[in-house]
Amino acid sequence: MLRYLTAGESHGTCLSGIIEGFPAGVKITPAYIAAQLRRRRLAPGRSARQTAETDAFDITAGMSGGVTTGAPIALIIKNISREVPPPSSLPRPGHADLAGMLKYDTLNAALIRERASARETAMKTALGCFARRLNELLGISVISRVISVGGAIGLAIDKAPAALRRARREGDTLGGEFELVFENVPAGLGSCAQADRKLGPRLGSALLGINGVKGFEIGGGFVLAAMGGKTVLRDPELSGGLDGGMTNGRRLVLRCAVKPVPGLPGGAISTDLKSLRKKLSISKTSDTTAVYAAAVVAEHAASLELANALLEKFGGDSLKEMRPRVEEWRKRTRRILQRL
Ligand code: EPS
């Protein structure tokens, strides 16, 4: 079983991460990880903070000579921006602040926002690179694309940069949707036996765990509710590659909705929990949209879950052990799928 954990605050010394249960023999270069971190950091719509961060990282355990050893892999990503925000009893509306202050019984919102920050997704992306690489070496690819920004969809997606510029000018932020596609996924990953073993909910949990993600769809998703059974059966792609919680040999298609970033440049009225006075909460967060960055994070969060499902089905402590098992399985299932 693949497990991972992240730690670290947005303006702390560094982010830390551990991935455990990862097979030996997977070659991965620092440049591979750096490229994915760059895609996330420099995605459209981000704030000036991103030009300060370099996401320089160190792999401190679990690799030898550029190849994984089977031991837990540990990473750190250094933070450049270390100016820890001063204590504040004013929760920023729409952020984790209020819920976290209630939960952890504190009047200091800064303690909450430091960990709830999307800075954490830098480490999730770095850890996900290992899973992405393993999947890739087993023949599986993943891509994402943003399919709507602030309501602009289809061909109008070309207007997204203009919509983002307008939102920035008007002190507003935008949400959006992205799609993830995994190709060449072996059939039979996941299970229909128990809800927590179904791959759909597992991928949903990974993706809904990304900051700002509020909606998740598999294949046709919410549109299926308005369609007739005859129509749906004519287009097997609408299942999104999953039936009964298991991959069916088709490509895996997942979609997520990301809410607009709640930190508006002009601030929002909130209630100070000490004085109980209404005050303007000015958020330093100036991302105009998180949807492009979230799509990159999602590729990696979902890759971790898919790698987990591959390890569950095929087992193995090394890539050498896994590869022939996956190949043999592909041959067997292809023989049946080709006859359909
Ligand atoms: C974030 C607020 C911003 C973002 C940050 C996430 O940071 P700051 O409060 O310093 O302006 O830039 O994202 C990252 C640093 C990152 O690497 O993604 C928030 O509140 O979620």
List the helices and strands and how they pair.
Blueprint: E1 3-7, E2 14-20, H1 30-41, H2 49-52, E3 57-61, E4 63-64, E5 67-68, E6 73-78, H3 97-104, H4 109-116, H5 120-137, E7 141-149, E8 152-153, H6 160-169, E9 176-183, H7 199-208, E10 213-218, H8 229-234, E11 242-243, E12 246-247, E13 252-258, E14 268-271, E15 278-281, H9 291-314, H10 319-337
Antiparallel strand pairs: 1-2, 2-6, 3-6, 4-5, 7-8, 7-9, 9-13, 10-13, 11-12, 14-15
The protein binds ligand EPS.
Descriptive account of the structure:
The chain has one domain: Chorismate synthase AroC (Chorismate synthase, AroC fold, 4-Layer Sandwich), CATH 3.60.150. It has 340 residues and is of the alpha+beta class. Helix 3 packs across helix 4. The strands form five sheets. It has a five-stranded antiparallel beta sheet with strand order 8-7-9-13-10. The chain is 35% helix and 21% strand. A hairpin with a 6-residue loop joins strand 1 and strand 2 (14-20). The chain has ten helices and 15 strands. The structure holds ligand EPS.
